[in-house]
């Protein structure tokens, strides 16, 4: 006796009924469903790859923008640092109730430069910001100095004040 699930051939003399199979697994049915599934899977794969390419493109663009932002930040930092070295406050006084600051811009560069000078007027003792004033000084030659004078936009001040270079002071152009 053959073991269970063993292959048992049907003798050639046996009559086969149409639409039935004599042995083994029946062949796979011809179906268009398999092609639909394959088509859907390929579409999903294509969309996924397209999405990945889009993400890569966006990330690359973002990296470029970040690189540009870093360059702009470094450039801005450099120009502010140069301004801090080029701009000096030489006097700070109250004349007729109006705080006034004066000073010099000295261009340390090897080419003409322009500067934006911002001065903060601060009440001595309290640290209260009384006001800000600014001036642009254009085309300072290499190694040259230019004088500036700024009155505060406030009046009626009687006490002592301090004049400090404001945070927006910057070399604005070459």
Features:
three-stranded antiparallel β-sheet; alpha+beta; Immunoglobulin-like; four-stranded antiparallel β-sheet; 31% helix; 7 strands; 1 helix; 174 residues
What does it look like?
With 174 residues, the protein is of the alpha+beta class. The protein has a domain at 86-173: Immunoglobulins (Immunoglobulin-like, Sandwich), CATH 2.60.40. It is built from 1 helix and 7 strands; from the N terminus they run H-E-E-E-E-E-E-E. Strands 3, 4, 6 and 7 form a 4-stranded antiparallel β-sheet that branches. A hairpin with a 5-residue loop joins strand 3 and strand 4. The N and C termini lie far apart (103 Å). The model has no long low-confidence stretch (mean pLDDT 79).
Question: Secondary-structure blueprint of this entry?
Answer:
Layout: H1 33-86, E1 87-95, E2 98-106, E3 113-123, E4 129-140, E5 145-151, E6 161-165, E7 170-173
Antiparallel strand pairs: 1-2, 2-5, 3-4, 3-6, 3-7
Main sheet specs: 4 strands, antiparallel
Residues in helix, % = 25-40%
CATH class of the domain at 86-173: Mainly Beta
Radius of gyration: 42 Å
Shape: rod-shaped
Q: Note the gap between the termini.
A: 103 Å
The CATH topology of the domain at 86-173 is what? Immunoglobulin-like
Strand count: 7
The H-level CATH homologous superfamily of the domain at 86-173, spelled out, is Immunoglobulins
- Average of pLDDT: 79
Structural class: alpha+beta
The tally of helices reads 1
H/E element sequence: HEEEEEEE
Query: What fraction strand?
Result: 25-35%
């Amino acid at each position: 006796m053959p073991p269970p699930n063993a292959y048992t051939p049907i003798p050639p003399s046996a009559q086969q009924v149409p639409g039935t199979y004599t042995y083994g697994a029946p062949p796979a049915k011809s179906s268009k469903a398999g092609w639909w599934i394959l088509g859907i899977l390929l579409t999903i794969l294509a969309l996924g790859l397209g999405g990945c390419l889009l993400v890569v493109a966006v990330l690359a663009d973002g990296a470029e923008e970040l690189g540009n932002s870093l360059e702009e930040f470094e450039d801005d930092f450099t120009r502010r640092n140069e301004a801090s070295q080029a701009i000096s406050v030489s006097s700070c006084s109250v004349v007729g109730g109006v705080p006034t600051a004066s000073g010099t811009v000295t261009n340390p560069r090897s080419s003409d430069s322009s500067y934006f000078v911002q001065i903060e007027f601060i009440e001595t003792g309290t640290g209260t910001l009384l006001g800000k004033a600014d001036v642009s000084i254009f085309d300072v030659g290499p190694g040259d100095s230019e004088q500036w004078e700024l009155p505060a936009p406030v009046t009626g001040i009687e006490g002592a004040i301090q004049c400090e270079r404001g945070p927006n002071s910057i070399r604005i152009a070459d």
